[in-house]
Amino acid sequence: MTSSINRVGIVAKRGLHGASEHLERLTSWLRDHGIEVSYETETAALAPPAFRSAMHSRDDLPLAVDLIIVLGGDGTLLGMATRIARSGRDVPMLGVNFGSLGFLTETRIDEVYGTLDAAVNGTATFDERALLAADAYRSGERFDSRIVLNDVVFTKAALSRIIELVVSVGGGTVTRVKADGLIVASATGSTAYNLAAGGPIVHPRVDAIVLTPIAPHTLTNRPIVIPGSEVIEVRPYTDGNNDEIYVTYDGQSGYPLQKGDHVRVRKSEQRLRLVKAPARNYFELLRDKLKWGER
């Protein structure tokens, strides 16, 4: 297979000074293979001056390259995933983890050149991940749209009591959740906040969306897995109290909801491609991260 990768962008976690020497080696390797290198603006400051190249903001980088290398953790990759989705381009990402292995940044630094070589030569394997699209409405008008990889989360303010949310699927009411919050997660996001809240692990190739209450008031409010083709609507239930309900997107940004607001979440038509580390599969990653089988 012929590679179509001629331009590679590099993004490092903000303030990751340990990436400096790796930026030098990566840049040299890519240039030796005839590939143009572009740095995200803040990442360029981490690189030795002699190796600094073209620079783009995080928002603009997906428009300028054919592959993005992320140096850092899952949070850095999530931020770039959202930006790739907003760009409308099909730009794959290679996540390189610094520290403990990530669920998304699954390539270790000592594996990066073998994985990168496969990507450049057109022999790499890609994981295609479903994205979620969320639209927020106020007074019948859409006022915000987001695309996320992991989850849309509804939580209470720090001093609020238990919040109530009316949850509908496909236009029909499912339940009224009384809890500290609610997680609407993709299969990929099932191993993020959803897992910490007691939700199920869903293999990323399963076409599903997970609804998981956070610390529900009643034990009968349990996580539920629904088909990925459904549209979920979450509407704060208000009875006159002034408790604030916040919606957050991939843990990166969010805002308070007002009385009467509602958010609709569905599977996006866009998908994200991640370059797979050839040395391990999904279940090996789970065993490593969750310490399965250890005593």
CATH architecture of the largest domain: Sandwich
Q: How many whole angstroms does the radius of gyration measure?
A: 20 Å
User: What name is given to the CATH topology of the largest domain?
Assistant: Tumour Suppressor Smad4
Order of helices and strands: EHEHEHEHEEHEEEEEEHEEEEEEH
Give a quick account of the main beta sheet: strands, pairing sense, barrel closure. Answer: 6 strands, parallel
Distance between the termini: 44 Å
Structure explained in plain terms:
By secondary structure, this protein is an alpha/beta fold. The protein folds into two domains: 7-125 and 276-290, Rossmann fold (3-Layer(aba) Sandwich); 132-269, Tumour Suppressor Smad4, CATH 2.60.200. It is 20% helix and 39% strand. The chain contains seven helices and 18 strands. The protein has helices at 20-32, 41-44, 61-64, 74-87, 112-121, 193-196, 282-290, and strands at residues 7-12, 36-40, 54-56, 67-72, 93-97, 107-108, 126-138, 141-148, 151-156, 163-169, 172-179, 181-186, 208-214, 224-227, 232-236, 245-249, 253-257, 262-275. It has a six-stranded parallel sheet, with helices on both faces. Strand 7 (126-138) and strand 8 (141-148) form a beta hairpin. The longest helix is centred in the first third of the chain and has 14 residues, at 74-87. The model has no long low-confidence stretch (mean pLDDT 90).
